[in-house]
Amino acid sequence: MKITKLLLSFILLEISISISAYDAMGHRIIADIAYNNLTNKVRTQVDHVLGKHGIIYYATWADDIRSDSKYAYSYPWHYQDLDENMTTADIKHLLNHPKAEGNHLFFAIDSLSNVLKNDKNNAEALKFIVHFIGDLHQPLHLGRKTDKGGNMVQINWFGRKTNLHAVWDGAIIESKKMSYSEYSHYLQDRFYPQKAKFIKYTILQSVEADYSLRNLIYKYDLSDTNNYHYVYFFNEKADEMLYRGGIQLANVLNKIFK
Question: Are 113 and 176 within 8 A, CB to CB?
Fold first, then answer.
């Protein structure tokens, strides 16, 4: 009985580590890219608020506190359900009226940015923003309301049952077998020739790009995900969203703390 309980404990521990580590990876990659693209002055300021490299270490904080009921108000902030066939004008309207469809991701980024502009020492607002700019660049955080951003879409993934959201939260990233810092450096080298272009992109353009990828994900034949072809097909697109997320986070923080 003791051996069985011990084995079960190890299994549960492995599952919990996998789930949290995968999600953490993407957020830390984005935060690391952002940190390397802050101005010297802004980097000093955010280090003062969260500690050196704090935006990387606290990149998962907004997920961690979902276990704390006193932060229940923030649970809907992690996603923004988007309808089908939205135009640029439709998305722009939602960004300009972030409470139009409830207090979700667009609302959180807008309101917390204002909080941080007024109080640049607000560590909680900073930790939230670091995380939510990351969520903004995960395409299924802009998913369909009907399937809870892909959480209800069951698929096969290399011999195991999972859901579409989980694949995009971490499984694709994990397939690279890199640490977050290795992945961050890889992306910064890979996309360096396009860096100047990405720096000029607005939040609206980021959302449009993410929404376009989201639509492509939903259109893909979901009976054909149990192989490397899926990773190969989406590899470059997933990498671009991670890099864009890091650059966009740097843009937001450089603007707030300038």
Answer: no
Domain locations along the chain:
2-257
3-state secondary structure of 48: helix
Q: How far apart are CA 123 and CA 126, in angstroms?
A: 5
User: Structure pTM?
Assistant: 0.90
> Contact, 31 vs 59, CB < 8 A?
yes
Beta bridge partners of 157: 160
DSSP three-state, residue 41: helix
pLDDT in tens, 124-172: 999 999 999 999 999 999 999 999 999 999 999 988 999 999 999 999 9
Residues 243 and 198: beta-carbon distance below 8 Å: yes
* Both tokens assigned to 56: 């990387």
- Residue 203's closest CA among 84, 56, 70, 95? 95
For residue range 9-38, list pLDDT tens digits in order: 444 333 333 333 337 999 999 999 999 999
- 2-257: what fold? P1 Nuclease (1.10.575)
CA 227, CA 234: separation in Å to the nearest integer? 12
Of 27, 21, 258, which is closest to residue 120 (Cα–Cα)? 258
Concatenated DSSP letters for 126-182? HHHHHHHHHHHTSGGGG--TTTTTTTT-EEEETTEEEEHHHIIIIIHHHTT---HHH
pLDDT digits over 200-226, tens only? 999 999 999 999 999 999 999 988 887
